[in-house]
Design goal:
The structure holds 2 protein chains of 2 kinds. Chain A is of the alpha+beta class. Chain A contains 2 helices and 3 strands. The termini of chain B are close together. In chain B, α1 links the parallel β1 and β2. Chain B has a single domain, classed as Rossmann fold (3-Layer(aba) Sandwich), CATH 3.40.50. The radius of gyration of chain B is 15 Å and the shape is globular. In chain B, the strands form 2 sheets. A 9-stranded mixed beta sheet of chain B has the order 2-1-3-4-11-10-9-6-7, sandwiched between helices. A two-stranded antiparallel sheet of chain B has the order 5-8. The chains are: A alpha+beta, B alpha/beta.
């Protein structure tokens, strides 16, 4: 079983890296990019029998810092 | 005063911190991240600066899950003192011993320079060697020192007089100019600037010495 976790900075938390990417895109001539948020994707290869609840626990305890980040879990 | 300094793979201020404690009169023991217990009778644990575990995942995140950090948390919950500097501050927020988080610097650059810090409170065993309102010069060296917490948490920190130091000229975008904060019992201090790098005339400044002396005063008579 595979799981994919998306971790993003929460709305309202300034994302200076996303802002830098937005500025760079503008400077390259890509008009109309109004916002960029940068996050990360973590792929987990899990033993059969693992559950989405296990992955959620991993997110809460390690993969995301819920003070500043939100996460979503996709089970493939 | 008996101090332990934690060493993670990637710590690089551990020896500086140990020397600063020793100069203040402490017996210092270095403890390895895989150790599951602290030596007996430790008064204060120093969590040093550096790049624990290569800053993988998030700064301090992997270190916060290491065996020694369970013991550090238990030490704090018994009322023990913990000083986290730079990466150590990041580790303490990741363990939940201190609120908030340290984000990438607003200007995206790693900043290494001496900055002015305003002592916001002298009411702690770390800061009672200063007067509230004093401005001291302490070096910073970080890429992720931009303190973030929700507005309610900031209000609590202010209301409980738990902001230890603020930047006089905010270098990294930190909310409320916060450079260092205290736990509710005022025995856990996390700060991004490095007092151990301003602890010898050879460093170019000695404004950090008063912090270690204040600690020694509190923990030697205790």
């Amino acid at each position: 079983m595979k799981a994919r976790v998306h971790v993003m900075l929460k709305n309202g938390v300034l994302d200076p890296q996303g802002e830098a990417v937005r500025h760079a895109l503008g400077a390259m001539g890509f008009d109309g990019v109004q916002g960029v948020r940068q996050g990360k994707v973590i792929e987990l290869d899990l033993a059969e029998g693992s559950s989405e609840a296990d992955v959620t626990m991993m997110c809460e305890k390690l993969l995301a810092n819920t003070v500043i980040e939100s996460y979503t879990v996709e089970i493939a | 005063m008996r101090a332990a300094v934690v060493v993670f793979p990637g710590s690089n201020c551990d020896r500086d911190l140990a020397v600063a404690f020793e100069r203040a009169g402490a017996d210092v023991t270095m403890v390895w991240h895989k150790d599951s217990t602290l030596p007996d009778g430790i008064d204060i644990v120093g969590v040093p600066g550096g790049f624990s575990y290569g800053d993988y995942l998030r700064c301090g995140a992997i270190a916060a899950q290491s065996p020694i950090c369970q013991s550090v948390a238990a030490h704090a919950s018994r009322g023990g003192y913990v000083l986290g500097v730079c990466n150590g501050f990041q580790v303490l927020t990741e363990t939940g011993l201190l609120p908030g988080a340290l984000l990438r610097n607003a200007g995206l650059k790693y900043i290494c320079k001496t900055v002015g810090l305003k002592v916001e409170t002298s009411a702690s065993d770390y800061t009672n060697g200063y007067n509230a309102g004093d401005v001291i010069d302490i070096p910073i060296a970080h890429h992720d020192g931009n303190y973030f917490a929700d507005p309610e948490t900031i209000a609590v920190l202010k209301g409980e007089d738990r902001i230890a130091f603020t930047y006089t000229d905010n270098p990294n975008g930190a909310q409320a100019d916060i450079a260092g904060i205290l736990s509710p019992n005022r025995r856990v201090l996390g700060m991004m600037p490095h007092p151990e790098r301003a602890a010898d005339a050879g460093h170019g400044g000695t404004d950090g010495v008063a912090l270690f002396r204040a600690l020694a005063g509190a923990l030697t008579t205790a």
